[in-house]
Amino acid sequence: MKHLQKTFWVNLVGMLLVLCFINVPAHGAEKKRILVVSSYHREYLWTQETNQGFCEAMLSFGYFDTADQITTYTQNDYVETSKAVFKKLWMDTK
């Protein structure tokens, strides 16, 4: 259980750091580039729930334009919106 808690906090801090640095102003209206790294398999319930929460947050903050983009991102690990380009990488921990 401690291993899961530690992994959770490491992933959370990592995502927050990425989001902090992504928000640094770029040149003009250039789109933000957001990289999400996941260390769990996509079929784990944990992974699906964190992905859902992340996508809902990005939609509510205006980074996703429509709910259809959430589906595209979830299926393809990539989507480009009017404000950002999202890419998800899967970390092979074995």
Could you explain the architecture of this structure?
There is one protein chain. The chain has about 90 residues and is α+β, with helices and mostly antiparallel strands. About 50% of the residues lie in helices and about 20% in strands. The protein contains 3 helices and 3 strands. The protein has helices at about 1-20, 45-60, 65-75, and strands at about 30-40, 80, 85-90. A 3-stranded mixed β-sheet has the order 1-3-2. Strand 2 (about 80) and strand 3 form a beta hairpin. The longest helix is centred in the N-terminal third of the chain and has 21 residues, at about 1-20. It is globular, with a radius of gyration of 14 Å. The two termini are about 20 Å apart. The model has no long low-confidence stretch (mean pLDDT about 85).
Residue windows where pLDDT falls under 50 for at least 5 positions: none
Tally of helical runs: 3
Averaging pLDDT over every residue, what do you get?
A: 83
| Residues in β-strands, percent | 15-25%
- Please tell me how large the radius of gyration is: 14 Å
Total number of strands: 3
Q: Which structural category do the helix and sheet elements fall into?
A: alpha+beta
**N-to-C span:** 19 Å
**What share of the residues lie within helices?**
40-55%
